[in-house]
């Protein structure tokens, strides 16, 4: 697995690189700004990019813009976005190309090595990895669309795990229910949210996350 890291915080950037290399992963470049990141993507053709949401010069959404451009230049590139705060403005642009090979983690998750590496491998393998805290806060925020209120508590639990990127089997294991029960809950969720039922992991996670885009963002610098 060839990895490029784009993070303007020196300690975090080098810490992540050291961690990944200790796991025998190939960190081919580390950068601290969007322009160098895109050059590294062109030069090294990585499998995965780990990208900070906010980088110089304005520390707004340079990382997201660069990640979108990197995926345009290198179709199939897996992107794991890091942010210091829960903010969903990243979703609209990144999810425009589908949720496959996409992750969004809070930076504090990096310190939980097993969880961080699990998310990295899940994204690299074509899946989705959304930080549980991100999902929890987005689900809890008020929105103009009240369709989430139609869901039962168990359906909200299933929806949250779907949004994290877990498959039916993993959801069943986490909630200690059968696969059949999970499948039934998912069909009910899609019906209540007025979404076409589909068991495709990419489409269902994309649909859930796009629905969650109605949540309000939390201001703050990443």
From TrEMBL:
<dbReference type="InterPro" id="IPR001789">
    <property type="entry name" value="Sig_transdc_resp-reg_receiver"/>
</dbReference>
<keyword id="KW-0238">DNA-binding</keyword>
<dbReference type="GO" id="GO:0006355">
    <property type="term" value="P:regulation of DNA-templated transcription"/>
</dbReference>
<dbReference type="GO" id="GO:0000160">
    <property type="term" value="P:phosphorelay signal transduction system"/>
</dbReference>
<dbReference type="InterPro" id="IPR000792">
    <property type="entry name" value="Tscrpt_reg_LuxR_C"/>
</dbReference>
<keyword id="KW-0804">Transcription</keyword>
<feature type="domain" description="Response regulatory">
    <location>
        <begin position="2"/>
        <end position="122"/>
    </location>
</feature>
<feature type="modified residue" description="4-aspartylphosphate">
    <location>
        <position position="52"/>
    </location>
</feature>
<dbReference type="Pfam" id="PF00072">
    <property type="entry name" value="Response_reg"/>
</dbReference>
<keyword id="KW-0805">Transcription regulation</keyword>
<dbReference type="InterPro" id="IPR016032">
    <property type="entry name" value="Sig_transdc_resp-reg_C-effctor"/>
</dbReference>
<dbReference type="GO" id="GO:0003677">
    <property type="term" value="F:DNA binding"/>
</dbReference>
<keyword id="KW-0597">Phosphoprotein</keyword>
<dbReference type="InterPro" id="IPR011006">
    <property type="entry name" value="CheY-like_superfamily"/>
</dbReference>
<dbReference type="InterPro" id="IPR036388">
    <property type="entry name" value="WH-like_DNA-bd_sf"/>
</dbReference>
<protein>
    <submittedName>
        <fullName>Response regulator</fullName>
    </submittedName>
</protein>
<dbReference type="InterPro" id="IPR039420">
    <property type="entry name" value="WalR-like"/>
</dbReference>
<feature type="domain" description="HTH luxR-type">
    <location>
        <begin position="144"/>
        <end position="215"/>
    </location>
</feature>
<dbReference type="InterPro" id="IPR058245">
    <property type="entry name" value="NreC/VraR/RcsB-like_REC"/>
</dbReference>
<dbReference type="Pfam" id="PF00196">
    <property type="entry name" value="GerE"/>
</dbReference>
């Amino acid at each position: 697995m060839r990895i490029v890291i784009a993070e303007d915080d020196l300690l975090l950037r080098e810490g992540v690189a050291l961690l990944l290399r200790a796991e025998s992963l190939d960190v081919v470049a580390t950068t601290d700004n969007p322009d160098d990141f895109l050059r590294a993507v062109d030069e090294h053709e990585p499998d995965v990019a780990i990208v900070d949401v906010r980088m110089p010069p304005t520390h707004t959404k340079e990382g997201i813009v660069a990640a979108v451009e990197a995926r345009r230049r290198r179709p199939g590139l897996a992107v794991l976005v890091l942010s210091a705060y829960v903010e969903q403005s990243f979703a609209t642009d990144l999810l425009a190309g589908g949720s496959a090979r996409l992750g969004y983690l809070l930076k504090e998750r990096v310190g939980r090595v097993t969880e961080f590496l699990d998310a990295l491998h899940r994204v690299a393998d074509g899946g989705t990895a959304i930080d549980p805290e991100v999902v929890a806060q987005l689900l809890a925020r008020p929105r103009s669309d009240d369709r989430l209120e139609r869901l039962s508590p168990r359906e909200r639990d299933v929806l949250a795990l779907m949004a994290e990127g877990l498959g039916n089997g993993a959801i069943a294991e986490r909630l200690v229910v059968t696969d059949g029960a999970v499948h039934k809950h998912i069909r009910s969720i899609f019906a209540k949210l007025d979404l076409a039922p589909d068991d495709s992991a990419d489409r269902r996670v994309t649909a859930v996350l796009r629905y969650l885009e109605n949540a309000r963002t939390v201001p703050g610098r990443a």
